[in-house]
TrEMBL record:
Source organism, top-level taxon: Bacteria
Originating species: Clostridium pasteurianum DSM 525 = ATCC 6013
Alphabetized InterPro entries for the sequence: BglG_antiterminators, CAT_RNA-bd_dom, CAT_RNA-bd_dom_sf, PRD, PRD_sf
Gene designation: licT1
Entry keywords, A to Z: Repeat
Listed GO MF terms: RNA binding
Gene Ontology terms: biological process: regulation of DNA-templated transcription
Official protein name in the record: Transcription antiterminator LicT
Length: 276
């Protein structure tokens, strides 16, 4: 392989005999090297093969602004996530997650918190992704000696959740369908309560995000925990209007929701319709 472009001593763009391009990382792989010279393949540690051209070009731009150790760290996190989740991610995960984590590290160094308002939902509905987020924080601590807060594990998990959803939606063509369904459900809530929802509120954001994740779970069979019966009955009594609104949504969806889904949907309706 021949060096096409050098980002720094540890990161280059190289092309093979078939003119395929790769982003390659390795300690000192570009040290005292110039474009056009042969790559020392013994120094290759990580190879990024991005099949989507647009993603590949954006990733190269990212490398010009982000420390190579951040890129290398994110590569390890993504590979770990692939092995745990047994999925292939869209190429853009290398851009979005790398950019996010690098920025999160900069914010941490500046003493700025980046809380995730959806951490409770993510822990509850996506425990695997959240555990990967926690593992990513351990990677960051081991590599950079920076102990980022637990909220950041949820932020990382959200990237993994979204990219899985994008792959699924791209294959099934459900993006527009789900967008319409979210709009319809919001209208059911608005007409039931005869109110205008505050689209800038955190409860509105939580509700819409919950619905997006909900559509990904719809149709998946899950065992319902026994305590959900007690909690649902309690919520049904305490928030009767929200519960009845949830039943309208269930009827619109033409499916029987689990107790767990009924419970959390009712709670979200109650939150998003509160005025205080």
């Amino acid at each position: 392989m021949i060096i096409k472009k050098i980002f720094n001593n540890n990161a280059i763009v190289a092309k093979d005999s078939d003119k395929h391009e790769y982003v390659i990382m390795g300690c000192g792989i570009a040290f005292k090297k110039n474009a056009g010279e042969k790559v020392d393949e013994n120094l290759i540690e990580k190879t990024f093969i991005l099949k989507q051209k647009d993603a590949s070009e954006k990733f190269k731009l990212l490398l010009e602004d982000i420390p190579s150790e951040h890129v290398s760290l994110c590569y390890d996190i993504i590979e770990y996530a692939k092995n745990i989740l047994k999925v292939e991610f869209n190429d853009y995960i290398y851009i979005t997650l790398t950019d996010h984590i690098s920025n999160a590290i900069k914010l941490f160094d500046s003493g700025i918190d980046n809380p995730n308002a959806l951490i409770w939902e993510i822990k509850k509905f996506y425990p695997k992704e959240f555990q990967i987020g926690l593992k990513a924080l351990q990677f960051i601590k081991d590599e950079l000696d920076k102990e980022l807060p637990e909220d950041e594990a949820a932020n990382i998990a959200l990237h993994l959740i979204n990219v899985q959803g994008n792959i699924s939606n791209d294959k099934t063509g459900n993006v527009s369908k789900h967008t319409k369904m979210i709009k319809d459900i919001l209208n059911i809530v608005k007409y039931t309560y005869n109110i205008t929802l505050d689209e800038k509120s955190i409860n509105y954001e939580r509700f819409v995000t919950h619905l997006r994740f909900f559509f990904q779970r719809l149709g998946q069979k899950k065992d319902t925990a026994l305590e959900d019966d007690f909690l649902l009955n309690h919520i049904k009594t305490k928030y009767s209007k929200a519960y009845n609104c949830m039943l309208k949504i269930e009827k619109y969806l033409e499916t029987k929701l689990s107790n767990e889904e009924q419970l959390y949907l009712t709670v979200h309706i109650q939150r998003v319709t509160q005025r205080n």
